[in-house]
Amino acid sequence: MRGIAENQMIMLSSLTTDQLVPQNHPIRHIKPIVDQALKELSPVFRRMYADIGRPSIPPEHLLKACLLIALYSIRSERQFCERLQYDLLFKWFLDLNIMDSAFDASSFSKNKERLLEHRVAREFLTAVIEEARRRKMLSDDHFTVDGTLLEAWASLKSIHPKDDGGTSKRGDKNPDVDYRGEQRTNDTHQSSTDPEARLARKGRGKEARLCFAGHVLMENRTGLVVDVKVTRATGTAERDTALDMIENVPGSRRITVGADKGYDTQDFVRACRDMNVTPHVARRQWSIVDKRTTRHTGYQVSQRIRKRIEEIFGWVKTVGGGHKLRYKGVARNQLWAELTTAAYNLVRMAKLMAACPA
To answer: d(Cα 261, Cα 3) in Å, to the nearest integer?
Structure first.
């Protein structure tokens, strides 16, 4: 029997957003962890705002919105604000009512500047990591470090010599530019769109692109991110930043750090040993690491597990939108990286809790 299309609008409803989100939805495992982390950050939020004036978008909403952007691969703040108007799951996650209006896109982007100014994303990532530690999801002894190139939000056509001050114009918005015969290096050229981006290539034979360097320190037992940094792409950025992240690992006990062949250098290995760290780096043909390290079973375990860090980079670049960065400069991309890796940790923690319920 053919159904009849009813055009009558429902005038009143007692439904809430919580009733409309399925009870077995994976995001229900994530929301309690986020709420607990935000509750711990309440003193930080109070210091960010004045006691008088017009109320702004609550910082809890800003952070939750940034997590949704990463979790659902939303390409921009404007698209998120548009979707928030009709997506009831988004409203439920932000603790909004069905009839509440979405944020204005311009106000939303402007309010995010406060998160950058007060380094709230770093505080939130730390709170998520501490929650994982309370749930016995983190070990304190074995880690892996690695880096990758993140393509900047800048075109190669924006590169110009530094000595012209960026005043040279090429006419059209998207002009045809011929760089043949012109040597471009980071010492002599820079991008007018994003001056902090640098020319870099992943390997021999690959074309150079304007990039930043992304670095991750992973805990080996569960594969959670314990630290993340975005830096300018220099020849030694991976090793220098890795040492900074290792140095920030709490405690004075001896730890192990797995890494690929790019870290098998005398400076890195020596610095690790000076910090009471055993470097489980993959060996080159003429390796700095000898059998005093490689003869142990733990070395083989680290070399096997260290490849799991590529899953983090894969998630960040595909789901998290890091294949092509959306922001300019190191600071704004650092904010994005901290919130995106926090979202990755939340997804990972939800899966672990579902696999091993308390």
So the answer is: 66
